[in-house]
Request: fold
Amino acid sequence: MEKYISGNFLPYTYTISVKIDNVTKQRFFLPDDDILRGAEIVGLAIRRNNDQKDFQDRNGDTLIPDTVMGVAFLELEANLVDVLQSIPLDYLAFDANSDSKFTAINLNGFTPSRSSVYFADVTNFTLNEVVEITFLYNSYQPSR
Reply:
């Protein structure tokens, strides 16, 4: 990751929001986005909410609180193969005051439509809260 951030070089970035649109469902798939589909993902970050729970994504939806993030897991797929399975969101989330915001990963041929956020417990859900994920990627490969 240092090779991308040193010298102020940053790969392309793209942020998505995964909305909790059903408070009884445990798995929410990432949007099937043309920009990320097939891309080489080199890092990602998940933004935490603050203690006042007033951080929002670009659409105005509130970010999930830590109580919900603590039971959430990210599952990413590339080229129809599970690459990251059940990684706790807490491991990938950053604090706004932290110097390090991105986690380095190597994911070539990203398949967003088959990737998801899974919640082990739905009791603390609030409808329309979101998980905001920013991806760092090196290349864009059009869908075939």
Observations:
- The longest helix spans residues 2-5.
- Residues 2-137 form one domain.
- The CA atoms of residues 46 and 133 lie 5 Å apart.
